[in-house]
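Technical annex, item 7. During the second reporting period the consortium partners agreed on a shared format for inverse folding records so that results from different sites could be compared directly. Each record opens with the tokenized structure and is followed by the designed sequence. A conforming record, contributed by the partner at site C, is shown below for reference.
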């Protein structure tokens, strides 16, 4: 599996599309998307309700500046192929070439339980090992799921993130295409991860994937997503919605590594609802995009539920990475750990923004928040905005924060071993990230270090 550095994924292919919408969004586009997808009526109804909410919501006034994103200029739906492929050979040659260059088929052969590959607005490939299907595991695109498993999807769709939650999640509900649906039956544990790769190929486009994961009682799943795009001068938008339901005693690990090009606005909404004794792990690496706003959240609604939210943000140049995590302690004896590491270099801005909420009655709950910031040079900046709301006296909330700069003394000491300044800075940053790198697959960690070296040498951007 490859965590692609910018130099290795900054390419586009000449693809033939079956449909490209004109720029802008209105109800006619919603109706056309539903027609092309052959949506069931309840999905089309949700799309239209969501569109109204999106149009009525103002742009967010908090967080990073979004003035460079013109929503009227975006292409909201690009349909690359007319049907899903079950083998790589069934794909058009240009799309197959893209994923081969990104190393996805190779990773599937080596150690993945299943792969979903999205190109533009649609999943174009989805496959799961046959022995897993026999255990009752479902891993299909969301478009397939609403038709093949309507009752299971309808029972859980929109139950964690309401249609009118925020402007950009409402937009995704209106125009979503692609994304994965995963169901793991009671007592089933996947030993290998499922993997989804999201690829934007065109300029001035919007990508709106919609993922829903349901882990039944005492099950386990590790789901990994990776996102890339070639660099263009015009702004593009990725607005994904991820809902996860962790039932009694289940364990879900969700790893998201986004390395969008620096013209992409990455504005995502990701939440989990965790029941009795369930465990939710969020691991997020945000190293690409022009602007990122990502705050995975866990609602701990069952006694003994727990969550770990671990995030890395690396902002370089004009990037603004605004990320963190949220834990809502609703039930007794729940626990949360939120750990954030931010790196700012070459004028980048890294921000931690998170929240811990403990409701009245959530006795013996424990929350620990630790956010560290490393500023690599004098032109970069880092900010921390923690929010803690505690309504239960019989609970414990701890918050730690550390911010530091790379000192001239540290650089001099390492350079005295015969290294350049860029190499010395890379070593310091790699040491700072050691704990995070232990949480992600080894190939991702190797590519992350390569990307850091490229950023420091000025060869990325």
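Designed sequence (site C submission):
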């Amino acid at each position: 599996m490859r965590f692609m550095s910018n130099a290795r994924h900054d390419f586009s292919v000449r693809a033939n599309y079956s449909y490209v919408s004109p720029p802008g969004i209105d109800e006619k586009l919603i109706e056309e998307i539903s027609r092309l997808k052959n949506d069931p009526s309840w999905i089309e109804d949700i799309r239209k309700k969501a569109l109204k909410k999106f149009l009525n919501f103002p742009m967010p006034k908090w967080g990073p500046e979004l003035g460079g994103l013109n929503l009227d200029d975006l292409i909201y739906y690009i349909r690359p192929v007319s049907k899903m492929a079950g083998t790589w050979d069934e794909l058009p040659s240009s799309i197959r070439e893209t994923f081969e260059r990104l190393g996805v088929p190779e990773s599937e052969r080596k150690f993945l339980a299943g792969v979903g590959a999205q190109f533009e607005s649609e999943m174009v490939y989805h496959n799961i090992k046959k022995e897993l299907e026999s255990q009752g595991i479902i891993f299909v695109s969301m478009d397939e799921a609403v038709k093949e498993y309507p009752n299971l999807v309808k029972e859980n769709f929109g139950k964690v993130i309401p249609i009118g939650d925020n402007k950009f999640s409402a937009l995704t509900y209106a125009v979503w295409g692609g994304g994965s649906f995963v169901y793991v039956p009671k007592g089933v544990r996947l030993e290998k991860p499922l993997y989804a790769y999201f690829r934007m190929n065109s300029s001035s486009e919007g990508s709106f994937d919609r993922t829903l994961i349901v882990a039944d009682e005492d099950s386990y799943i590790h789901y990994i997503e990776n996102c890339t795009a070639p660099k263009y001068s015009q702004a593009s938008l990725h607005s994904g919605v991820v809902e996860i339901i962790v039932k009694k005693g289940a364990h879900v690990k969700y790893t998201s590594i986004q390395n969008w090009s620096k013209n992409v606005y990455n504005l995502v909404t990701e939440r989990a609802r965790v029941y009795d004794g369930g465990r939710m792990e969020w691991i997020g690496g945000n190293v690409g995009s022009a602007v990122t706003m990502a705050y995975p959240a866990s609602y701990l609604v069952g006694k003994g539920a727990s969550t770990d939210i671990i995030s890395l943000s690396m902002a370089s140049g004009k990037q603004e990475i605004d990320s963190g995590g949220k834990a809502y302690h609703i039930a007794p004896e729940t626990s949360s750990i939120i750990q954030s590491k931010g790196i700012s270099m070459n004028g980048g801005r890294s921000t931690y923004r998170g929240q811990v909420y403990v409701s009245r009655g959530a006795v013996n709950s424990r929350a620990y928040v630790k956010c560290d910031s490393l500023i690599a040079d004098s032109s970069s900046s880092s900010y921390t905005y923690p929010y803690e709301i505690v309504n239960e006296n019989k609970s414990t909330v701890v918050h730690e924060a550390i911010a530091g700069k790379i000192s001239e003394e540290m650089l001099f000491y390492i350079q005295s071993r015969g290294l350049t300044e860029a190499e010395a800075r890379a070593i310091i940053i790699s040491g700072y990230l050691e704990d995070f790198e232990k949480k992600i697959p080894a190939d991702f960690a190797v590519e992350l270090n390569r990307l850091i070296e490229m950023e420091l040498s000025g060869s990325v951007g």
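The first helix runs from residue 6 to 9. The chain has 13 helices and 26 strands. All partners now use this format for quarterly exchanges.
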